[in-house]
Amino acid sequence: MSLVTSLMCRLRCCNISSAPIMSTAILRLKYINRKDANMSLHQQTVHLPDPTKNASYNLSKSTVSNGANDTNRRIYVVRHAERVDFVFGEWIPPCFDESGQYVRKDSNMPKHLPVRINSPSAWLLDSPITNIGRCQARLTGDAMKEAGAVISYAYCSPSYRCVQTCHGILEGLGMTHVKIRIEFALFEWMLFYRDNKPEWCTKDELYADNFNIDMEYEPMMSKKELLDLTNENCEEFYRRNHSVVEQFLKSHASGNALMVGHSCTPETCTRLLVGKEPRTKGELFSVLQKVPYCGMVAAEYSPATNEWQLRDSSGFSVTHKQNDRLEWSAIDN
After folding, report:
1. pLDDT class for 70, splitting at 50, 70, 90?
2. Average of pLDDT values for 288-310?
3. DSSP state, 23?
4. What percent of the chain clears pLDDT 70, i.e. is strictly above it?
5. Is the pLDDT of residue 32 over 70?
6. Would residue 47 show up in a list of annotated catalytic residues for this protein?
7. Is 279 a catalytic residue?
8. Would 266 disulfide with which of 167, 212, 292, 297, CB 3.0-4.6 Å?
9. What is the pTM of this model?
10. Which of the residues 42, 73, 79, 116 is marked catalytic?
11. Could you say which of 134, 138, 242, 262 is catalytic?
């Protein structure tokens, strides 16, 4: 199955094509064949409400800041930034020469890719983020810093795009000293990977690529255990993601956590935490369509009520328009 076919199947499962045009977040797929570049563009457009109409957009008034007298704990759950394969479609063949060396074909592609086992095929289901994605991640961290957010622990899906995003957010926060804990239990629903299993960079490969990886952290779920979940249902997926939150709270009596994952993660890591039941498959697919790149949910614990609640984190959004590839031949005509 080709990358494009795989992605289309996944998006059909999400019923994206039937989403209303002006819904809070719309994923629109657009393939444009380019004979001169021998590639296609696979672009994602995110439509969000006008932030100027959002009273909480002023970051200085954010409801999720950590002031000097604020002791409430928070867990910030974020989707990864813009991914290369969703922008450029089948990007691997034109971007790797016969010797396997990476050569970028667009300034929004990464300048370099790290050395990893089974490259370049391993990138097929483990896409990096774009340069725009790097900006999204850093801007998200910068907004959190401006709001006074403080992070003590960082948990991350093993996907390379998530590690890059986590690193970028910590850069924006000015907290790159916080080590990134690779947690397989944070990976997305294995329903999307029934036909093809993803490969991830090892801790050593990530560390060699200058990510501040916690080399001593032992994930609560192993890589093998995750890959064996071939028939994972929706409720099991919710509980797997939630188990990371539970383990964090059991292991650490204080401190805030950053958790970086996928479009489902802000939902699946907080739903049970606030005392609600897992959604159905259809309901979950409807929700994930509304989570843009670097979309964040902040859960806050109140000692007074002994409850976790979701707080308005819309001020951390990075809202922007799409920018298509230049049709230079239309000008040089």
Report:
1. low
2. 95
3. S
4. 79
5. no
6. no
7. no
8. 297
9. 0.81
10. 79
11. 262
